[in-house]
Design a protein that fits this description.
Elements (H helix, E strand, L loop, with lengths): L1 E6 L7 H17 L4 E3 L17 H21 L5 E9 L8 E9 L2 E7 L26 E4 L2 E7 L19 H7 L4 E6 L7 H16 L3 E5 L1 E4 L2 E4 L3 E3 L5 E4 L6 E6 L15 H19 L5 E4 L4 H14 L4 E5 L7 H14 L2 E4 L3 H11 L10 H22 L2 E4 L3 H6 L12 E2 L6 H15 L5 H5 L19 H13 L4 H6 L4 H13 L1 H5 L27
Parallel strand pairs: 1-2, 2-3, 7-8, 8-9, 15-16, 15-18, 16-17, 18-19
Antiparallel strand pairs: 1-14, 3-4, 4-5, 6-7, 9-12, 10-11, 12-13
């Protein structure tokens, strides 16, 4: 059987537009000889629809759109293949949650049946038990007879619970085992599996292991594109019964992959660079492009400081929406070095971006005058430094309001973790492109960008010591541990859930660890008010980080 994997980039909530995407991909798959077509999980609504699912009218409209789509496809292709469509389904039992996360089997112009997701993830960025009731995975409930085959239809998490692959399973039931016991002859999975670094290698290895374990071919269809902070890398794939990867769709883009379940006609696999900088670059470009376009923005702007962070954000934005649509704003103060201005202008020329320069010295003086009486007798401190940052934030937001361009923030994960950023200042903006990249990864990404783009980022920016330039001679390392040390501690504390005591036991300096962990705790209120950013790490700030504000520190 030739199966068509419709790797789509849906817009959340755009039922009609998403149906049109399914229809166009279905037509392409039929032209390539597909006998069965599969979409990603919740393809009709886009994933994740989150609290849109709490509106009963939304789910009803999705079902009506699914039925209309099934009828249109049959009218266009009367003898064509069935479509397995990801779509929420109303739970009419009156028990439990009001919806199922379902795969609708569309055939002969109607929705013939539905298969309901059994395992509902409630960790990291997932909160599916908030919306959905679990489907029944026992007795082969997801096995569908079609053209002489018994196809086990599963949805995303239903595959991620193999007891022989994972040392600790999250759920007592394995829907795949139940389907195999019921006589399944092939495994089908509709997925919306978000990107994170190193995940593709794990995912592909797991899928291969499951196919080989059960001796069955496995077809996996994943979503592509960016929705809010999540990026979906696609890479839909087909595995043979011996676990061999037979075919794989493109990464980080829409694709239609048609391949034979028997593996009779193996395909040439696309080349993928899975190094961290290469994966990060593709994820940030796609996530930025889709966030702007799906939110209705055509242009972006950012402050150019002459530092590595704003340089990388500028390069990502220029690649995502074209340099002609990105404005770099220079806002030098009396403490700004000549090199920072020159380096910013050189960067903009290299990328082909427009720039605008707005000196902030007159505004700094106006603030000093206005606050002179209130600050009388008090020494200068970080208050005056933060005022500079907030002046810049106000200028950038004014330009954003006036031009309709989205303001991109340029802070990295190291700064956001420890609060080395100014709320209502450099944190102002609508999208935080590199907020999940520690400083050391920002430098690695910059080197990758220069390898791709012929030294787009000037060497002076690569070489200079990081500085906010808010006072004479200021350097980041005056206030923070070396970034190599800081990032190593943060990786253990934020991404590996290690307490300060456990990090100290691993050999890090006790005073440094205590200070860093205290800074992370103290900056929680800032992160609550930060712009959304693109998830890159296994665990990121944002919807996957749910720390209390009014709480004692971790031990």
């Amino acid at each position: 059987m030739r199966i068509g994997l419709l790797q789509l980039n849906p817009k959340v909530g755009d039922l009609r537009g998403n149906a049109a995407r399914v229809e166009a991909a279905f037509d392409r798959a039929v032209a390539l000889g597909a006998e069965l077509c599969i979409t990603p999980e919740l393809a009709l609504t886009g994933y994740p629809p989150r609290d849109m699912l709490l509106y009963a009218g939304f789910a009803c409209a999705a079902r009506a759109e699914a039925e209309a789509l099934a009828a249109r496809l049959h009218a266009r292709h009367p003898a064509g293949p069935a479509l397995v469509l990801g779509c929420p389904e109303v739970n009419a039992s009156g028990l439990g949650k009001g919806l199922y996360n379902a795969a609708l089997w569309c055939e002969d112009g109607t929705v013939r049946l539905s298969v309901r997701k059994s395992l509902l993830p409630t960790y990291d960025v997932f909160d599916e038990a908030r919306y959905f009731e679990s489907g029944d995975a026992s007795n082969g409930a997801g096995v569908v007879e079609y053209r002489g085959m018994r196809l086990a239809v599963t949805i995303c998490e239903d595959l991620w619970n193999d007891k022989d692959y994972w040392p600790h399973r999250l759920y007592p039931v394995d829907p795949v085992e139940a389907a195999v016991a019921a006589g399944a002859s092939a495994l089908i999975n509709l997925s919306a599996s978000p990107f994170s670094l190193r995940k593709q290698s794990v995912r592909q290895d797991m899928l291969s292991s499951i196919a080989k374990k059960h001796g069955l071919p496995l077809a996996y269809c994943n979503q592509a594109g960016g929705n809010d902070e999540l990026v979906f890398d696609g890479r839909s794939a087909l595995f043979g019964p011996d676990g061999t990867l037979l075919a794989r769709a493109a990464g980080f883009e829409e694709d239609v992959l048609v391949a034979d379940l028997s593996g009779a006609r193996p395909q040439v696999l696309p080349t993928d660079d899975l190094s961290a900088p290469a994966e990060t670059w593709r994820a940030l470009v796609l996530g930025t492009r889709d966030y702007l376009s799906k939110c209705g923005f055509k242009k972006a702007l950012l402050g150019l400081s002459g530092g590595i962070d704003s340089a990388v954000v500028a390069a990502v934005a220029a690649e995502a929406i074209g340099p002609q649509n990105v404005l770099g704003v220079l806002m030098p103060s009396p403490w700004s070095s000549r090199g920072s201005v020159d380096d910013s202008l050189e960067l903009a020329r290299n990328l082909g971006m427009e720039t605008r320069t707005i000196p902030i010295a007159p505004l700094m003086q106006a603030f000093n005058t206005a606050l002179a009486e209130s600050f009388a007798g008090l020494p200068q401190d970080t208050t005056e430094e933060n005022i500079q940052s907030r002046i810049r934030g106000n200028l950038l937001m004014a330009l954003s309001n006036k031009t309709g361009a989205l303001l991109l923030t340029t802070g990295n994960k190291s700064e956001l973790a420890v609060g080395y950023c100014t709320i209502y200042g450099d944190m102002s903006g609508g999208f935080a492109v590199i907020s999940d990249l520690p400083k050391t990864q920002v430098y690695a990404l910059a080197r990758h960008i220069n390898a791709l783009k012929g030294r787009a980022i000037p060497q002076a920016i690569m070489d200079k010591a990081p500085s906010a330039e808010l006072k004479p001679g200021q350097k980041d390392q005056d206030s923070l541990p070396p970034y190599e040390v800081l990032d190593a501690i943060l990786a253990l504390h934020v991404e590996k859930d290690k307490t300060a005591a456990e990090i100290m036991a691993a050999g890090f300096d006790a005073a440094t660890v205590a200070r860093v962990c205290a800074l992370v705790k103290g900056a929680e209120f800032k992160r609550r008010q930060a712009a959304p950013g693109i998830k890159v790490a296994w665990r990121s700030f944002g919807s996957g980080w749910r720390m209390p504000l009014a709480a004692a520190p971790l031990p």
